[in-house]
Amino acid sequence: MKLKIYSIILFLNSFLTGIITPVISLLLIDKGATLSNLSLILGLYAFTVVILELPTGIIADVFGRKKSFCLSIVISIISFLILLFGKGFIILSIGMMFYGFNRALASGSFDAMFIDYYIDNYGKEKLNNITTRINVLDALGLSMGALTGGMLPKLTGTYLSLSSIYDLNIIIRISLAAVVVILSYIFIAETSDNNKEKHITIRQHIKNSSSIVVKNSTIICVFISVFSTGFFLSSMETFWQPHFLSLLPDDSLMGLLGVMAFLYFIAATFGSIGSNNMIKKYKFDTYKMYLILRTLIALALIMTAIQTNIPIFMVSYSLIYLLFGMASIPEGVILNREIPNEVRASVLSVYSLVIQIGGLSGSLLYSILINYVTIPTIWMISASIILITVIIIAKKFTAEAAVKKTA
Asked: Above 90 in pLDDT, residue 73?
């Protein structure tokens, strides 16, 4: 029963995020952002996550993951109230910074509760199953939310009189967020193991979790790799909507924004499921599998960058997320089997922190490059960063695979 409750909350939380995903850049532009400062606004969001990611992960481990998760949803409601009623660069930046605070609080807390519960009941040897469940529910929620979110602006423009055609997306997101925080507060209970961590000082907790990360070269390699994840996701999330609109012959096809987001989230879902089945059926080595899939992501990104045909662009863009979903399973297995339960939220927060640092680095670079190069060129640069990180970690992961095979 508890597994189902966790799953429902995860799905709903992802659904409400998906409602905003296909229109976030367009929403910000509609409320006063420009193509040039769009990267700066999203960069401020990423910067907020960066500076708060580790402290909020530690707070989640020491003071309670449930409290941190519920607080994150409340803060997300505040952020979107600001975006609903605000306009202009300053107000939009403040709203997105609150959203960054929300993402920092939420990043390690809920997943850590879910993973710890699963390990306690099913064991670490089935980590690929819980990793797949989390990824699939997250992707399904995002995809269904994105499909809905892509249709809402047209409905708003046709039947409602709101100040922005994207306001209905925000209103529904706020309403669903209220539902999620109520369900979480009522039905989620932290395990006794988590509560014991309250007796450990923050200073000692930081020392313990830092020692685990610094001394574990496998975790460091994963972090090097996910830096490029933030770098390439930032380039995709910032520019795919305006670039896709530039490929459309007229505005009557704007509904394809939601279809596009739905397709790539569904692709990520199938990627996660397929990857999990491959690991279980064929006993693929997670290290080698991860290296191959990350290389294929870079190649798919390059292929997408050179497309001008709309259907082919949609397919190749979805392929990136199919491969990304596949790569997330071995990545999650490799990372979570190295992390002790008592510091899981903190280390997962560092994981998210590294992604955000990559995203922030990308946003700052893109805000400059967009004045001199095209969006496809930026995507080519992102692909290069992925390939560089694959080369850096390949030796370590290949050695780990050989040791595991020998054992």
From this structure: yes
Show me where the domains of the chain are located: 2-190+199-406
pTM greater than 0.90 (yes/no): no
- The pLDDT tens digits of the residues spanning 203-231 come to 666 677 788 788 889 999 999 999 999 99
Closest C-alpha to 62, from 180, 183, 208: 208
Please give the CATH superfamily to which domain 2-190+199-406 belongs.
Answer: MFS general substrate transporter like domains (1.20.1250.20)
Rg (CA), the chain: 20
As given in the structure block, the two tokens for residue 367 are 């805000």
3-state secondary structure string across 216-272 = CHHHHHHHHHHHHHHHHHHHHHHHHHHHHHHHCCCHHHCCHHHHHHHHHHHHHHHHH
pLDDT, one tens digit per residue, over 274-288 is: 998 898 887 888 999
Is residue 104 within 8 A of residue 355, CB to CB? The reply is: no
User: Which SS3 state, helix, strand or coil, does residue 165 take?
Assistant: coil
Do 222 and 334 touch, CB atoms closer than 8 A?
yes
